[in-house]
Amino acid sequence: MKILDRYILTTYLKTFLSVFIILMLIFVLQTIWLYIKELAGKDLDIIVIVKFLAYFMPKLIPLVLPLTILLASIMVFGSFAENYEFAAMKSTGISLQRAMSGLSLFIVGLGIVTFFFSNNVIPWAELNSFNLRRNIAKLKPAMLLAEGQFNTVGTYNIKFVDKYGDNDQFLKDVTIHIKGNDGRTNATVIKSETGELASEENSNVLKLILTDGHLYNDVTPKDRKAKNRKPFAKSKFETKVINIDLSELNNVDFDEQSQTDKYNMLNVSGLNKTIDSLVDKYNNEHTTFAKNLQLRSGLNRQLPTARKVKDSAYTGPILDLFNTKKKLELVDVASKSMISSKQLISSKDATMKHSKIWLNKHVISLHEKFALGFACVILFFVGAPLGALIRKGGIGLPMVIAILLFLTYHFIGIFATNSAKTGEFNPILAPWVSTLVMLPLGIFLTRRATADRGLFEFDYVLEPIKKLFNIKEKDSNDYTFLSDYKDEELIDTINNHETLGHDEAVRLKAFDILKSRDYSTADLRAKNLRINECYDTTETISQHYKDHSKFALVLYIIGVVLLILYFVFSNNKLLPLATASIQLSIISLVLFCIYYIKSIINSFQFYNDINKAQNKPHIFLLVLGLPFYFVTYLFLNEKMKSDLKVNCIESLK
Fold first, then answer.
1. Is 520 helix (H, G, I), strand (E, B) or coil?
2. Which are the contacts of 405, defined by CB distance < 8 A and separation ≥ 6?
3. Cβ-count burial of 466 within 10 angstroms (0-12 exposed, 13-18 middle, 19+ buried)?
4. What is the largest CA-CA distance in the chain?
5. 3-state SS of 160-179?
6. CB 77, CB 383: distance < 8 Å
7. Is pLDDT of 594 > 70?
8. Residues sharing a CB contact under 8 Å with residue 616, sequence separation 6 or more, in sequence order
9. Fewer CB atoms < 10 Å away: N or C end of the chain?
């Protein structure tokens, strides 16, 4: 390994480890806050808490690692550019690609290690964290109950003021609500002065001994008048023993599909086997249900006819073959059969949707393991050239840019994954969407940084802002005197600028004033303005581009807003509004693509017409314009406006 590669790798590793530790601590604190209800007030041993955090930390890697790579890359390469270290490398003939080569091998290796980590360690952590949360209740039943609040244990809601004793087995001022048979109403209320938890350590029964209390039980009489009186039974006891079954909490079947995190506990091999079995099961359920519907329809049975028909190829109404009584019977049977089949289909549809969602979750989990490693590599090739382009190291600007890019990457992944779980999006493609969105950005930034070009031509952004707020440069000229000129004087200024001592900027400003007075180029030519006729075609193409690009921008904004509203309405179960939003969004985005393509064609025609094909917009900028059109619109619009001014000056004779 050469000295330069060792220096870059060492610098990157120092920053990488520092950022990784800081971000991991932040996300660990978030995890503690998320599960504070399960941890607080239950007197957990420090070892149990350490295990709890140790099992949850691997599950944070898919969030922490991509953000760490992105932020560390921007910080390190931004620092190199800010301190002119890249300039020193280039002066010795070392390109950015060569400087990144050694570190690129490290990132690729890290991506491979990340795959094995997500395939082996994360499923292990998921399984152990689930077991630990379950075993807290099994090993120490008292930890189930937090003081000062109602604790739900099966059909019991238990509340007490305080707990004390060596093992917190004694309770003070106990109130218990027991749910009725419907699982909702509180049919029984028990209040006692004290209570004691007397369960054995490995028992599946939580034994609660209550002393000196009362029991209130609702009575449900059959008589309506008596029911309106709301009668209840009251009894007093000195000692009462309640045995609460904890087997449902302790004996968790990991093969049940009700466990929503089961797919996170499997590696690639286990996921492939499970997916195959789920697909077979889904297809078998579908086939069996179809056969049952066919049998219930009675299509295989041959109906007896009431009268004989000579022509065997009868094409008239079938009911005409039967008498009136038989017709009524058949219609009644058919109506009941349709209602029954409709109810059966509705019930089965919910079951099939649940099975499909469960299958999609396994498919998504399988591809997430592969996508994570690729995401690490892609985000490096986004962060490293971006840092070299912005030429800023440290925590400030790189942190802001990294967070914005990561939030874009993360939220795209969340939206795609949530849509894929319900079947609205391809579950295979969903884990890759955010990575694929970042891929063209990484290629674009790498090419810009390699060519030693700026991130963007910021003048195209700053000029409209300066015009909007009337900001002038210190050395800028004031052309307000031209506004008082008559048309003939302005034309004379353009035609005879050298004689009058004016520069090209004055000619261009005078031409803009004439155009603002609603004169076409042909009208000005008729007034003896010396300008090439080919400029008319260039100006027409430019105007077409403006019209198409503005319409594309409006359609893009409408489509994106409606798409966001679709997810909002879907999450709030407003299906009619969600359906209308997604349909209108698709129409708007399709029209946006059409007008976007038209504007691109206009831009190509423009540069061909002015014989500057080398200035055509880059293909990566055009691809980036599909998801981020507002950026492309801003840069292309200002670039073409600037090039049109240059062509105008060249066309003036």
1. coil
2. 70, 379, 382, 383, 438
3. middle
4. 117
5. EEEEECCCCCEEEEEEEEEE
6. yes
7. yes
8. 603, 604, 607
9. N
